[in-house]
Design goal:
Order of helices and strands of chain A: EEEHEEEH
Number of strands of chain A: 6
CATH topology of chain A: Folate-binding fold
Domain Rhodanese (chain B): 35-79
CATH superfamily of chain A: Folate-binding superfamily
Radius of gyration of chain A: 15 Å
Number of helices of chain A: 2
Radius of gyration of chain B: 22 Å
Largest sheet of chain A: 4 strands, antiparallel
Cofactor (chain B): FAD; FMN
Protein name (chain B): Sarcosine oxidase subunit beta
Order of helices and strands of chain B: HEHEEHHEHEHEEHEEEEHEEEEHEEEHH
Number of helices of chain B: 11
Helix content of chain A: 10-25%
Pfam family, one (chain B): DAO
CATH class of chain A: Alpha Beta
Helix content of chain B: 25-40%
Strand order of the largest sheet of chain A: 3-4-5-6
Number of domains of chain A: 1
Oligomer: heterodimer
Largest interface: A-B, 27 and 26 residues
Largest sheet of chain B: 8 strands, mixed
Distance between the termini of chain A: 31 Å
InterPro entries (chain B): FAD-dep_OxRdtase (IPR006076), FAD/NAD-bd_sf (IPR036188), Rhodanese-like_dom (IPR001763), SoxB (IPR006278)
Amino acid sequence: MLRIKCPFCGERDHSEFSYGGDANIIYPDLAASMEAWIEAVYRRENPKGPHRERWQHTDGCRLWLIVERDTLTHEIASVMPANAALASLLDGQSS
Amino acid sequence: MPRYSALSLIKHAITGNRDWPRAWPNPEPKSSYDVIVVGGGGHGLATAYYLAREFGIRNVAVLEKSYIGSGNAGRNTTIVRSNYMLPGATEFYDFSLKLWNNLSHELNYNVMFSPRGQILLAHSPDALDSAARRGNIMRRHGIAARLLSRADMQKLVPHLDYRPTARFPIWGGLMQPTAGTARHDAVVWGYARAAAALGVDIIQNCEVSGFLRDGGRITGVETSRGQIRAGKTGIAVAGHTSRLGEMAGLSLPIESHLLQAFVSEPLKPLLDYVIGFGGHGHFYISQSDKGGMVFGGDLDMYNSYAQRGNLPVVRDVAALGVSLMPCLGRVRLLRHWAGVMDMTMDGSHIIDRTPIDGLYLNAGWCYGGFKATPASGWCFAHLLARDEPDRLAAPFSLDRFRRGAMIDEAGVGPIPKLH
């Protein structure tokens, strides 16, 4: 079982979360080239090792998180809110 | 290589089975080949066999980083079927089934193909309508299909849960009587032996670490056993396709995910058919010739190369198994394991040239690679020999994503974990 430390709810089993895939994918502007869209929608780096990925805490606070996880060892290096404003708010609290 | 026959069995039995010859040689890699196939699983070995047998190209090497069949060829649930609905997929898998039918004779190796029939369960009137539609599409393509009523099901598969309280009430099912199972390791060994007999070099413990280039063209591979040159290089590695792609500079529409499989302690004959359950979850089960219940379910649902599964899926699969066949509740699990799947963006495979000269791709088999082994090998051999895809492989091109010509049987879009 992976254990994901949700910044809002604490450490929980990964079965509370749903997986949202590669977090490095940013959808381009609507007017961007076809090539940029094909890259974002279909192509994946699919690394063996550290992977930045999205998870949603569906059975908890329902917020989207960015998790850094190793795809070979399943070790989780960091968890932070996907929303940048929330992430900086949490940063402010901890400092 | 001596042929296996009843006579050879008797002869070796008399001499105490002490001097069976090696089934295939263990050669040192040569410095160059006409064709190198990277990946010694079922698909890679079948490719080499059909290259030699159908297309007359015998100066071929299959490179395997571990022992042959150590990847997904040895990790699947051995199901062979062709009950697909979309144009392209239906014909491809039907061709594969035709090759399965004669495979043991052709290879002179018993792959234990057992076309015992596969039944897709229907748990509501709508699911039964949908099964009828699938069956009609199959029959239009000449693939046998039979719609089963609840009464039929009770006769054929008496151990399902038919009580009024059943979590998944049985309304009927769709049977493909020509589908079944095969012995996965024997498929690997049979292709290896038959390919080696035709002159193919099977080189194990030989991991590819890079590609050799001449200008823009790929001219061979760098391996843990030295450089090997090749006129053409084909990739058939499953799970690790993206890693080979990265070495070549290709960005691919693939994510690697884990799929677990399970086998129980051996039981007396309990289940005569392969059973598939989908829609409200995912579960499939058959009984091996040794008596073990062989079953599986969904992916682990996150990118991974770990070859080991996680517990939530074990729980889900067990719960589904017991819901469908309550008698499984007291059966003990013998082993469970995971393989690394190439999950593509539409759930279908890729057999195509790559944008790089000299490099060819056979990848993205998602859940369905085992049943495809003969057709995959045949079509990939055709591509490597003729430099153009066979009619059956043409729909499974690498640029179909750019053209919007996806073959998305599940209809869920570019989300690999859901296919």
